[in-house]
Amino acid sequence: MPDAHFSPALFRFLEELAAHNDREWFHANRDRYESDLREPALRFIMDFGPRLDAISPHFRADPRKQGGSLFRIHRDVRFSKDKSPYKTHTGIQFRHTAGKDAHAPGFYLHLEPAQVFLGIGIWHPDGPTLRAIREAIVDDARGWTKAKGPPFGGAFELAGDTLSRAPSGFDKEHPLVDDLRRKDFIGVASLSEKDVTTPGFLDDFTARCRSGAGFIRWLCGAVGVAF
Fold first, then answer.
1. What stretches of 22-176 show up as alpha helix (H) in DSSP?
2. Using an 8 Å Cβ cutoff, are 88 and 14 in contact?
3. Are residues 96 and 58 in contact, defined by beta-carbon separation less than 8 angstroms?
4. CB 207 within 8 A of CB 151
5. How many CA atoms lie within 13 A of 16 on its CB side?
6. Could you tell me which residues come within 8 angstroms of residue 181 by beta carbon, excluding any fewer than 6 positions away?
7. So what's the pLDDT on residue 43?
8. Is 0.85 topped by the overall pTM?
């Protein structure tokens, strides 16, 4: 069995970064960031690439150090009251080739002490995309219900933000009104630090992504991109 991509050292680094979130500490520990976090994450992205291509050729596993599937560790603090310079988690997104940011359809891995999960779907879609998904639910209720059922439903839970009432222009009595109220169309599978630090995690991650392929396929159809 191949070596594990991630180790407990990744989570130790993030815990200490949360306690010492300043540039001086980070620069003193930059070698740990490279060896315990960035290099393992880039290797995971590279190794998942052929497996992702077998699920769908329209999603990208990009192992570049900058601008690829691995989110940068630096926070954008321009419009935030919290000026902490670094994120205390690692995010990896395998997004659709038609997408340019985190709001595109994709598969996502979140690594954070005590909060590890796999997410799939579309997070915070823009207005036109959100309306297209809601209209697709109305027009293809059977297809949507099937997409969120097994095997997706057995591996993921629908999550994200919702409206308090039916969105404007949609029937508040619609049988799928709870889904029409959604602002995010994502499925989340909770994981543990132990899960991601075992040698078989790449196989497990691949299997979970494959089980959500029907859900992603439906969303791609709803927003008019290829799967």
1. 23-28, 30-32, 39-55, 127-139, 141-147, 152-155
2. yes
3. yes
4. no
5. 16
6. 162, 163, 164, 165, 166, 167
7. 98
8. yes
What tokens does 56 get? 């769908």
- What is the rounded distance in angstroms from the CA atom of residue 203 to the CA atom of residue 36? 21
**CA proximity to 204, closest of 221, 223, 225, 190:** 190
Q: What is the DSSP letter of 86?
A: B
pLDDT at 86: 96
- Taking only the tens place, the pLDDT of each residue in 64-95 is 999 999 999 999 888 888 889 999 999 999 99
Average pLDDT along the chain:
95
The helix-helix angle for 201-211 and 213-223 (nearest 10°) equals 50
| CA 216 to the chain's CA centroid | 12
Domain borders along the chain are 8-223
**Which CATH architecture fits 8-223?**
2-Layer Sandwich (3.30)
Q: Decide if 141 contacts 175 (C-beta within 8 A).
A: yes
Structure tokens at 146: 């099937």
